[in-house]
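Please produce the structure of this protein holding zinc ion.
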Amino acid sequence: MTGSRRLNILGIESSCDETSVAILSDDDVKVNLISSQHFHKTYGGVVPELSSRAHLQMVKPLVDSALQSAKLNLNEIDLITATTGPGLIGALLVGLTFAKGLSFSLNKPFVAINHIEGHIFSGFLMEQKPEFPMLVLVVSGGHTLLLFVESFTRIFLLGTTVDDAAGEAFDKVSKLLGFGYPGGPQIEASALKGDEKKIKFPVAELKDEYNFSFSGLKTAVLRFVQKNYNDRKIPESDLNNISASFQKALVDALVQKVNLALNNHKVKSLSLVGGVAANTKLRNEFNNLAKRNKIPCIIPSLSYCGDNAAMIALRGLQLYRSGVIDNLRAKPYPSIPENHFLRMS
Ligand code: KG4
Ligand code: ZN
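Below is the modeled complex.
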């Protein structure tokens, strides 16, 4: 333990297309700046090289303005944290190297953060904190993970996707419907105007009880579009019905598995995190599910759903308080290391 004095933590996140810098005083967020690289829209997805360059331009100005907003100078920072993976290597290198440089020059401790762990505990940024043990669903552009979380250091993986991640499915279906990248918000907006009962898209049945699969759903949408419209333009009302029906099938698939896990594991809270947790239908279904199970449901506010440095700084504090300090050799990594999470026997 490091004593009970409040700590000022600097967090840096640069795993994909958001440069984010946050300053926390213990678990109190003083500032959480996020600069999104909207220019990737032109290319239909994130271009790694352009992402690294934009991070390079943004990281220092963001650190400067975060310090200014928090009314702190660099010497008053007690702990430095940055995302080390999973993510795009070039993008990660920018934030990670900047943080390591600060740590070295200021002689302040540094903790390297797995950004998925940042998402997992992002519910702790909210006023109402989750209680252990908790069930967490991480839904982002690259990951779909169902986890049983016993404490800040004991995280068990129950299930994951066998193909596309939930956010990836939103992005791919969005592309094939002509909406573009990122898909989630655009599909959601279109779905709001549509009828979700119009088309029945299939939900995959998997042998492994907690795993997910979304590539069949994506193909079903593609077949539906090819069969009914061929090369013709899809009328807007039909587009809205397709979006709504696709969104319903995906949300149903997620809720089904979480419901099963709630039946089999006694937990004190439920948490929904990651970029796709911004989806209103999914948030509503999770709140209903938790109500039926008489447990609290903690879903971060929208600025903490997508990639953000506040969750990185908070995870840094949790690890530091449990005795973790990294050296400056921490290297970026593209995907979650195998066996990173515990397995339930
Ligand atoms: O966590 P995140 O910001 O980045 C990754 O670590 O991947 O998640 C990004 C994903 C994208 O696939 C995006 O389409 C999805 O989150 N997303 C949404 C919504 N907002 C963002 N998906 C569904 N509904 C939304 N409102
Ligand atoms: Zn993320």
